[in-house]
Design goal:
Largest sheet: 7 strands, mixed
Shape: globular
CATH topology of the largest domain: Major capsid protein gp5 fold
Number of strands: 26
Structural class: alpha+beta
Distance between the termini: 40 Å
Helix content: 10-25%
Length: 416
Amino acid sequence: MTTLNTSDYRDFDLQILTETVLGVMKGRDVFMGSLFQSSGAVTISGTMPEKGPEVIGKQVTVPYFGVIPEFVDLAEGDSGTPGDLHKTHELATVARSYCGVSLSTWARRADDDDPYSEMARQIVLRAQQRMGALVLTEAMTTPLIHSVYSATAPQLISYDGVVDARCSFGDENQDIVAMAVHSRVYADMLKLRDSNGRPLAVSEGVAGDSVPRFNGLPLIISDKVPLTGSSMATPVSSGTGSEPTLTLAGTPLGLFKLRIRVASVSLVLATATIQFSTDDGANWSAPITTAAANVALPLIDTAKDSLVGVNGKTGITAAFNGNFANADNKYASRTVAKATSLLCKRGSLAFWYNANAMAPKFDTNVRQDSSEIAVHMYAAPHLYRRVVGGTTQGVVALQHNVGGFTGLEDLSYAVA
């Protein structure tokens, strides 16, 4: 929930906001800005029937055309047996996503800027981002996996690796319309050259509208690409006295260069405070109080508009086995990344959502004298069992290591 400060807005009119948001959504499909939609990898429909909270986590049927029979040879005088083009159904699970903003009475004071258009723009942007995340998570369920990942002999993404992944489709690999990669994986791609020194990752199109490609495939670059299977490297530590051992657990939400430093020392561990950074010390969290010895502490930054982790979250927990000896105790670790790049065929996925349910809803909190604005998105992302006219599913997952996050890096510099 985001709360707008008193100085943010003046004379804020909730009805105008409603009309503005509905106008934006009516004037164009809310997901037209999604690269998944524009590439053709995902079929998007806003016609899902009206659903409420009671269907969250339940399955709905996603309409889908079946496949007509293949051509067969007939002897002279024989009659063929016709098949039919029919609609079939596959099941998808409904999820509800929420975006909310709280406006205090004093905060409804707008400056000369147009807060309505800006809020409507941001709601659409957040909806697109959420759709992309849901689609990526659904695409990860594909059984078609080509893995070159190694914990001991790291294998980064390569031209040959992408070729081998494409071959997972067999002779049906001609209609691959998008490849989704993490931004750090894209950086690895940009470093690849052919024998003449020419980059293998290229951009095509007019200026300002270029499309990055690799192995001829258009790239969707998104840090929402899951890092399933990733972990954190064993921490290194330094400091005077005997620093306690740090144990990290969980699945990191990003490619982190983690540092932890002591903010205040206490004779009791549960009252000492630490700060953490996920970008090698460029930005630090607000101080957080440690837990008791050997108790996992979620590394979550409580600072407003945090620049640490992913909006303050890391997916990691930290447990110390004793009290800090001195304030110079510090630690370093790094994500051991298992990245999954996704090769998507045309129409391989569906995103079925309820467009009517996305109208903003309002309520008044009489205790705080504030108004709350909420947008709910009921959606069912789905990976089709096979693409139309094909024999396989339309997504191949290529698993590989990521440069600089292999678990073999020397971290001693970070605690020197």
